[in-house]
Every structure is written in C-alpha cells, then in structure tokens.
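R.M. (postdoc): so does anyone remember the format we settled on? I'll just put the structure tokens first.
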C-alpha cells in the first residue's frame, strides 16, 4: 500500500514514519515540506536512515501535489496523512480528496461538527464546512464502524484522546451527576507543541519548570464535549486545564467526576472492564495501581487507573498516553489499518520504551 505524509519534517511526521516502517507491505511514496523541499528526508531526520525505504526519499513541495500525480500517477499514495499545522489542513484535504486519495488528518480542522465552533475555539472561520459532516472522528473505540468507510478521518487530539477514553464508560452509562461540570487536569510533555521552536518551549523555559497554559479556552475542549455528549446522549460539561511538564513526550490526565447511582469502586471497575473488554489498546490498571507515562511511551496504549472517593462521591480517573503515538501517529496508523481493511494492530508496536 502506498501512503504519503504532508508535513513530514515535524514531530508527528517523524513519529508516523517510524510507525509506518514497521507496517508490512507499506511504501511511503510521498513526503513533503515547504521549507526543505528538494532535500533528502534523512538529512532532516537522520534517525530514519537505517530503514532502506527512506534512504532515497526526497521532500517535495506540497503545492505541487497535482503535478506530482499527473507526472507519476502510479506512485501517488492511496492514503495521505496531513501532519501540518491547524488551518493548513483545510486547504489541503479537499485537494487530496479531489486527487482520489483518502485523508487522515492529524490537525483539528475537521474534528468539530459545528462550523460555528471554529471562530470561538480556533480563531478562524472554517473554509470548507461542507466537509465537516463527512469527516469521521478517528477514535476507534467510539467510531470503528464509520472509520471503515471513511474518506476523511479526523484523527483525535492528544489531550482529548486521554480524556475521552477516561470518561467514555461513565458517560455512556449515564453516571455523571446531572448539572455538574467534570474537572480535567492534563500534563503534557513538550513535543506536544511540535518541532517549530518558540520562546515558551526552549530548554531553559521548560527545564526545571512546571506551568499551566491556556487555562481557559483551550481548543481541545469542544472536541471532548462533542464526543462525550454524543456518548451520554445529552450535554456533557467539562472544564479543562493543560500543563506543560519538562519531559519530551507523554500525557498524564487526572479527571474528577461527581457521580450518581454508584455503589462503589467495584461497580465502576466492572463498567470499565465491560466497556473495554474487546479493546486492544486500552489497559485498566489493577485496583490501587497508578498509571505512568513511561509504561506507554512509544506505544498506542492508553492506561487507565480508577479511584473512588466515597466521602465526596467523586470518581478520579488517571489516564496516560504517549502524545505522539496514541495521541497522533500510531492512532493514525490504526485508522489506516481500519479503513484499509487490515488487522487493527498491523505494524503496531506493543512494547513501551522504558526507562
Ligand atoms: N505534537 C503532538 O504531540 C501532536 C499530537 C496530536 C496532534 N498534533 C497535531 O498534528 C499536527 C502536526 O503537529 P507536529 O507536532 O508534527 O507539528 P510540527 O512539528 O510543527 O510540524 C509541522 C509540519 O507541517 C509542515 N507545515 C506547516 N504548515 C504547513 C502548511 N501550511 N502547508 C504544508 N505543510 C505545512 C511543516 O513543514 P514546512 O513548514 O516545511 O512545510 C512540518 O513538516 C498539528 O496540527 C498538531 O496540532 C500534534
């Protein structure tokens, strides 16, 4: 199968290339960068140089997609990943779809169903809202059946992946206490901000430091509410605060939920066990065990730890993922597996890189 990556010089592009190197019968035939067009991929990512399929790949200009297809139609990818900045995918996805390839988009440009939410949360007007209804939100645990036939998959955000998986069983079972707001507190490694340098993510600003950011209004909030409300068949309200921690990769999310109709931790555990019983990439910790980011590093796993504060009727869920893998590239490869009819775990690494 031929695949391509637009935005191959960034962190999620690199992570995708690592994942795809482990997927049998997969050939990456197109990689792009505007700034590095014409140069060798392995000059930008020397860590990929050991894989023969990448040694001769040349970065191409994403503005020339139509010309590339016209000149060499046989090499044009069947599926193209968009690993570009927010807003850039809006212009690229329709072009790629018109060229006959399927799209797996890693940005937030097609995740929200209501176009009115984009100016408020992303600060732009959506340029092709007609695509929002056909885009399938690419969280396999929720939308596996629809992903199978999708032409445009909106791969979930990293924070929302950790939050939605933490809350899905409680929302579906109607156990969130009515009229309450779920509190969500997430901590992310710095690779979540991408490879492009900015003052806030240089070493001396991040090392030995721990800070919240976008305390109100983070753009991932409506995506969580959209998917959880869909599961709950009613409005789910949540308040989300992200933090930056001095590590390269990983997300640890703590979610605080006021519940109703709950008898104790064993009931909650049974609900989660049942909900995730056929899910290969969600692991429930044993009672009392606390999930750690190092146990999922470099993998597609989401580890969940369940805790119940009986005095306050509060359920606390700790969820950990690797932001670049489960939060981006490996989840995107699982979506590729689903939409191409392959086994869901084809090529997916199952062992974390620890320490
Ligand atoms: N980092 C994470 O943990 C993570 C997790 C989930 C989702 N995401 C999302 O995934 C996307 C990529 O993130 P990243 O961390 O890989 O970013 P990044 O490291 O900054 O890389 C961005 C890539 O996109 C290319 N690009 C940027 N603007 C473009 C445009 N207008 N047209 C074509 N190519 C463009 C860049 O190369 P050129 O500028 O040379 O073209 C570069 O290759 C973002 O939307 C991000 O929100 C990231």
């Amino acid at each position: 199968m031929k695949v391509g990556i637009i935005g191959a010089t960034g962190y999620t592009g690199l992570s995708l290339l690592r994942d795809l190197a482990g997927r049998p019968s997969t050939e990456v035939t197109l990689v792009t960068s505007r700034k590095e067009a014409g140069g060798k991929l392995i000059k930008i990512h020397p860590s990929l140089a050991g894989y023969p399929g990448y040694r001769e790949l040349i970065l191409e200009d994403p503005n020339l997609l139509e010309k590339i297809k016209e000149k060499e139609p046989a090499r044009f990818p069947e599926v193209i990943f968009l690993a570009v900045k927010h807003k850039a995918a809006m212009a690229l996805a329709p072009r790629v779809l018109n060229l006959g390839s399927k799209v797996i988009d890693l940005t937030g440009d097609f995740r929200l169903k209501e176009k009115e939410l984009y100016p408020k949360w992303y600060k732009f007007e959506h340029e092709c809202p007609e695509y929002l209804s056909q885009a399938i939100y690419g969280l396999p645990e929720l939308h596996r059946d629809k992903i199978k036939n999708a032409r445009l998959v909106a791969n979930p955000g990293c924070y929302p992946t950790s939050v939605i998986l933490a809350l899905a069983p409680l929302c579906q079972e109607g156990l969130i206490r009515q009229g309450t707001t779920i509190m969500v507190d997430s901590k992310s490694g710095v690779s979540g901000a991408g490879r492009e340098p900015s003052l806030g993510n240089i070493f001396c600003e991040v090392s030995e430091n721990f800070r919240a950011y976008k305390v109100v209004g983070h753009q991932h909030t409506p995506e969580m509410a959209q998917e959880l409300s869909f599961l709950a068949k009613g409005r789910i309200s949540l308040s989300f605060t992200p933090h930056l921690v001095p590590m390269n990769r990983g997300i640890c999310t703590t979610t605080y939920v006021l519940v109703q109709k709950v008898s104790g931790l064993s009931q909650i555990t049974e609900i989660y066990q049942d909900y995730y019983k056929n899910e290969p990439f969600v692991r429930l910790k044993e009672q009392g065990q606390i999930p750690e980011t190092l146990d999922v590093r470099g993998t597609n796993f989401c580890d969940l730890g369940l805790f119940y504060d009986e005095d306050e009727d509060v359920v606390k869920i700790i969820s950990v993922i690797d932001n670049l893998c489960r939060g981006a590239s490996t989840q995107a490869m699982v979506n590729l597996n689903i939409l191409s009819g392959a086994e869901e775990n084809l090529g997916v690494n199952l062992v974390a890189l620890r320490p």
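R.M.: ...and that's the designed sequence above, right after the tokens. Also worth knowing: Residues 158 and 323 are 5 Å apart (CA to CA). The first helix runs from residue 11 to 21.
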